[in-house]
Amino acid sequence: MRSGLLFAFLVATMIPAGAQQPGNSNWEDWRFLLGKWTAEGGGQPGQATTGGFSFDADLQGRILVRRSYSEYPATAKSSAFRHDDLMVIYQEQPKGTRAVYFDNEGHAIHYTVAFSADKNTITFVSDVTPSTPTFRLIYRRLKDNSLNVEFDIAPPGKPDSFSKYVEGTAKRK
User: Fold this and answer.
1) Is the peptide bond before 156 cis (omega within 30 degrees of 0)?
2) CA-based angle 56:57:63, to the nearest 5?
3) For residue range 5-29, what is the model confidence (pLDDT) as tens digits?
4) Dist CA 119 CA 18 (whole Å)
């Protein structure tokens, strides 16, 4: 009994402040993403001026939830706007880790998730549909424990022809 309490204490102390401990799902490799992050943008065309995101365990650790926002300045062609999105990450057998994404612009995207061999990069690739673009979202852990975040798009019918759409860095709050 005491060893169980000690284990729970040791695991709880490894989780960033404010994050919940994942339950029966295997989220160990995700620990470097748990918590709140501030994104760095320059406000140039296509770049947010401010933004951030969080990764938190939910449903007693059965899922991870990412909430994200970006604020974009007005340009000559558009007024200022805020982008909000929500992603639910879950285990689906036998497919492995999956995610579903929703945003305030009406998009819904289903992703398959994979880790690099060194567990420092998590890549989300959308399901391929013939008449729509394919999306790729990449989180890379950097040596200073910040993140590189990249979002790529491939045109319809060419699911492996990704072009970088936006890229930035994020630091833990």
Assistant:
1) no
2) 120
3) 333 333 343 344 334 343 445 789 9
4) 23
Residue 140 makes CB contacts below 8 A (sequence gap 6+) with: 120, 121, 147, 148, 149, 150
Q: What structural domains does the chain harbor? A: 2-172 (2.40.128.20)
Closest CA to 55 of 150, 151, 147: 147
What's the DSSP call for residue 28?
A: G
CA angle, 138 then 33 then 67, to 5°: 80
Report if pTM > 0.90. Answer: no
Partner residues linked to 149 by β-bridges: 139, 168
Question: How many residues would you count in the chain?
Answer: 173
**What is the C-alpha separation between 170 and 139, in angstroms, rounded?**
10
Amino acid at 102: F
Contact 123, 114 (CB under 8 A): yes
Closest CA to 54 of 82, 29, 17, 26: 17
C-alpha 128/C-alpha 117 separation (Å) is 24
CA angle 161, 156, 151 (to 5 degrees): 55
For residue 43, is it left (φ>0), alpha (ψ between -120 and 50) or beta? Answer: left
Please check whether residue 28 is in contact with residue 58, taking contact to mean a CB–CB distance below 8 angstroms. Answer: no
